[in-house]
């Protein structure tokens, strides 16, 4: 029965995979037509609105965040900086005006003009109102009161104080960004004399940034570090180049191919070498051995024509983006390249006719045949034995010392047959991945699992206002000690729990505490969506597209389990991610960089899809990857940045956004949740150290 049941399950899975692939192939043409129709219609609609309302500058961004953005639940990013130094709001305003608001490009235009424009919605499209006369810096850089509900502001009530600012909407009549300067008492002590989280006895202050996402997406040159006034020249001498260099479950989903890039590099090098040799032998402009004023024969004529065509195409491709977008100007540019090559190579009608006559001359024809016969005879009698000797010698050297002589056929086969075999294996793996992708993506996004039920965070009636909290910091060295101790006590022979598994175990316990305080029901598992971002996206020069990874789906166990079982379940979930979500991650990266999905599907369909998915993934997680090459960050005022907390806003039906913040060798949890969940959201961060100690006591 077991064998029969296994065969039936395997056959069922095979048929299901085939049907999903056939459905995907059938939908693909419809998707392509929809992409052309929807994207073109949207561009025409925006062009019509821009002509109808010339005083508005309409947003061109068409990503998922702009789709789910509403005035009730706006996509406003929040960053909290802890800075060592005295809080001088006038110096901050002056520096911000000088470095950001007044910055101009090489043509004398303002670089970030939209920072002075209010944001409104017009006929379903966001637009900036092109007026600056009402702009007042005092409405944006604000000195916060030092009292909170009649009491001095301390670290003990800072989270509640910051949540009050975040829970309030920004005034709609001003540009959508604000900076709150929050001075703190020297030494970081509260009224009872208890030391605060800041270890420094020097004065320090906080800066709370509130920035609408469209300000960053519509101004691609505007970086978050510009708004934070980070001295990128001082701090980011060495930056993490890409997400592929980071150790995170949200990045590096698939091990990169090895043999295909090697074949591609070697093939390019071989073609380049052969082409350069061909150009040297047949192009009079490159070789001193060829007469430049006369073309001898049809063979040289055809060679020069081929070289000229390649030069024209390569120059046209390089200069295409630099020429005006007018098609007539581009045609004139192509014509100028053709005329240039004709003049350089003397390709006149007389030259071409002389080359043809030279090739048809009987004396030249006889010379060519004599040379060809001599070459064939010399090759057979002299070169063939030499080639055989070289091949035998190459095989003998390989069998004796294992060295490959590349300039022989045997050496070529010994080197590239294994590479070809590996490349074919990688191609087969890629084809299999594409074949199974429709089923895996559909199951991950839409399939209902019996072990995952609805939970408290999916049933909250959201209001759109946000509250925040954050945990205390833990040194990464302390986390490593817990990691090593857990591995020894748990008795793992082949696998010691790593940092990611330990942090996910802490997150599981935190979500369990939140659900218990919410409705008392603890789900067995919970769907989470997760991504990672580089610290250099916040404090360096990395932009949004290269500093953020794609999304993955994580099935996190929540039900009360002993610590060992919990860690094993988390490890299994991570393994499933690596096996089944490569294409899902790739698709979200493609959406992040090219907005292909929002440009292909109608707005109504996309909104219904996002409402469903955001309810399925009611909790989202962002891991901020620290840059280990930078030990200290400073702002343009010369003050040291002691800490940073990034809050990513949950939108649509997502109710909780959690950030795993790594900075300066420390890690903490930060949470942004809908205010309908507060104050229960504090359970997500309050037990951070307690849950870590419980893992250490395993």
Structural summary, described in words:
The chain has 22 helices and 17 strands. By secondary structure, it is of the alpha+beta class. Strands 10, 11, 12, 13, 14, 16 and 17 form a seven-stranded mixed sheet that branches. Strands 5-8-9-2-15 form a five-stranded mixed sheet. It has a three-stranded antiparallel sheet with strand order 1-4-3, covered by helices on one side. A hairpin with a 2-residue loop joins β16 (656-663) and β17. α1 (2-52) packs across α13 (409-446) and α9 runs antiparallel to α11 (349-360). The protein is globular, with a radius of gyration of 33 Å. InterPro entries: O-acyltransferase_WSD1-like (IPR045034), O-acyltransferase_WSD1_C (IPR009721). Pfam families: WS_DGAT_C (PF06974). The chain crosses the membrane at residues 18-38, 301-320, 369-389.
- Oligomer classification: single chain
Helical content (DSSP H or I, runs of 4+): 40-55%
Strand content: 5-15%
What general outline do the C-alpha atoms trace?
globular
* Distance separating the two termini: 41 Å
Name the poorly predicted regions.
Answer: 188-196
Keywords: Membrane, Transmembrane, Transmembrane helix
Pfam families: WS_DGAT_C
InterPro entries: O-acyltransferase_WSD1-like, O-acyltransferase_WSD1_C
Protein name: O-acyltransferase WSD1 C-terminal domain-containing protein
Q: What would you say about this model in short?
A:
By secondary structure, the chain is of the alpha+beta class.
Write the layout of secondary structure elements.
Elements: H1 2-52, E1 56-58, H2 64-68, E2 76-84, H3 89-101, E3 119-122, E4 125-129, E5 141-143, E6 147-148, E7 151-152, H4 158-167, E8 177-183, E9 204-212, H5 213-217, H6 224-227, H7 232-235, H8 259-282, H9 298-319, H10 327-345, H11 349-360, H12 362-401, H13 409-446, E10 466-470, E11 474-475, H14 476-490, H15 499-518, E12 525-534, H16 535-539, H17 544-547, E13 552-557, H18 563-580, H19 582-594, H20 603-616, E14 619-625, E15 640-647, E16 656-663, E17 666-674, H21 683-686, H22 688-696
Helix pairs in contact: 1-13, 8-13, 9-10, 9-11, 14-22, 15-18, 15-22
